[in-house]
Amino acid sequence: MKKFIYSLFALAITAMTFTSCEDVPMPYSEPTNGGSTTTYTGQGTVDDPYTVADANNYIKAGVGLDQTVYVKGKISSVDSVSLNYGNAYYKISDDGTSTGQLIVYRGYAFGNQKFKSANEIKVGDDVVLVGKIGAFKGTYEFMQGNYINTLNGKTYTPTTVNDNSIDKPYNVAKAIDVINAGPPTVPVYVKGIISTAPTFNSKYGSLTYYISDDGTTTSQLQIYSGLNKDSVQFTSANDLKIGQTVEVYGVIKDFNGKPEMDKNNFLISVTGDGTSTGGETGGGTGTGVSAFTNGDFETWADNLPTNWKSTSTASSATLSQSTDAHGGKYSVLVAGNTSSNKRLGYTEMKLSAGTYTMKFYAKAATADGGSVAPGYVPISSDNKAGSYVYGSYVNNLTPSTWVEVTYSFTLDAETTICLVVMNPKSPGKDVLIDDFTFTQSK
């Protein structure tokens, strides 16, 4: 009987407990957005981004940190911009002060592009960033891989491709315009003339080369690590030649300030034998001395003499146009430097075995005098300059007299080279070069 009474008593207590729970308020609020108890002013979307305060609270809640979110704020400090990696380390807050800041770690520039200049962002800029946010060693930050989606009211909009097809490819000029407007999200077709000697990567069976609309080195698009038709590997650098017209398919983008078709691109078609670069239509570079043009430095584009810029490191000097000419209207001024040798370099050329002669005229640009040394450098299949080969130094140049400089050299086998004129660091003064000719001995 006593056990029965105790059992009834226990059941009564249990019933009272469950009944009372129905009348007690929930000890927490319903989760919102990131799953925390915090109510956010934004939704973290492109149309309704979080504030910086929202972002900090979101990180503190620790829920949903694997999601990509949008955060608006004002840049409160710019700590560093790395042009080597194209990213920046800076901070944002809601009012542009150091209060309630959020670190932006290794963020990319507007439109998910790499920074080309430290001046692309500044304190006080209004931004909307997109990426993942989280905590690292106690600090709240945008994690690596974020980028600026809106900068001072301008919103990034990727280019949609609806005017491009295999039968209607972009020309190079159009491709560059598309890159500048915002790279497309899908691969595109581009057609152009090969303007530099391809370099071969034997490991991947790929070729890297440049194309332009007229076959010259003006307004080029780099075709980086491209494959042959149907993504088949190339077998050598000779599979494509300067002067051939190609159509290629791949993703175009900006890479360190230069337009490029990214790796994994492949060839759609190729026409022409590449024996000429269309010198009659403005010059260009090519295989053999017949392609050598603009030795008189009369043709300029983008403040550089056409063809006098290598894609390798052979060209290291600062160049400018001068009206103090040996012949014609212009010569090229090759700036000197007392700390290092500087070089005027011609675009890479593939030459057959034989003996070649370069001749040009030089003089000092100022009363300080000057020196030059003629030469060349072999260029490897991966576009790296080898050991420089120079002729005799020509010293004691004066600003009053043009001096003829001649240098001959012999290649034992087919070689890709850059012709160079070195302005040595001693004395490291500015010099003028004009009327450059390049011939092969019969």
From TrEMBL:
Gene3D superfamilies: Galactose-binding domain-like (2.60.120.260). Keywords: Signal. Residues 1-22 form the signal peptide. The keyword Magnesium does not apply. InterPro entries: Galactose-bd-like_sf. The keyword Glycoprotein does not apply. This is DUF5689 domain-containing protein. It comes from Prevotella herbatica.
